[in-house]
Amino acid sequence: MSEHGTLAEVARKPPQAIVCVLSALRVHDLTTQSPFEVLLAIPNKACAPQMEYPLLHIVRFSGAALTKGIEDHQLDGVTVHVTNVARTVADCFKFRNKIGLDVAISASAQGSLAV
């Protein structure tokens, strides 16, 4: 199992889920922080997956937010939907009140180097 093994486990539960924000930063190697929970975006009306481990933080998206800026990554043999670098940085600013403005600014700086 790789360092992203928990993301592969989570991706097996809700197939429409998208790894986003802090968890996506980690996938793209834009942060050294390891989030203590996996951040997943799911459709507004979808049932949230229930897991004991890892902890999940669910955000709900609809419309274009569910389809734009999404990439598929192979993690431990599982296809995982992850927001791309630009979308991840934008989402960090969108959720800055939850994750902290410093994280969003750092993601922006690292993201500009990655692009």
Total count of strands: 5
Low confidence ranges? none
Series of secondary-structure elements, N-terminal to C-terminal: HEHEEEEHHH
Q: What is the CA-CA span between the terminal residues?
A: 28 Å
Q: Could you tell me the strand content as a percent range?
A: 15-25%
Give the strand order of the largest sheet, numbering strands 1, 2, ... along the chain: 1-2-3
Cα gyration radius (Å): 13 Å
Q: Looking at the structure, what is the overall shape?
A: globular
Number of helices: 5
Number of domains: 1
What would you note in describing this structure?
The protein has 115 residues and is of the alpha+beta class. The protein has one domain. The protein contains 5 helices and 5 strands; from the N terminus they run H-E-H-E-E-E-E-H-H-H. The strands form 2 sheets. A 3-stranded mixed β-sheet has the order 1-2-3. The protein has a two-stranded antiparallel ribbon with strand order 4-5. It is globular. The mean pLDDT is 84.
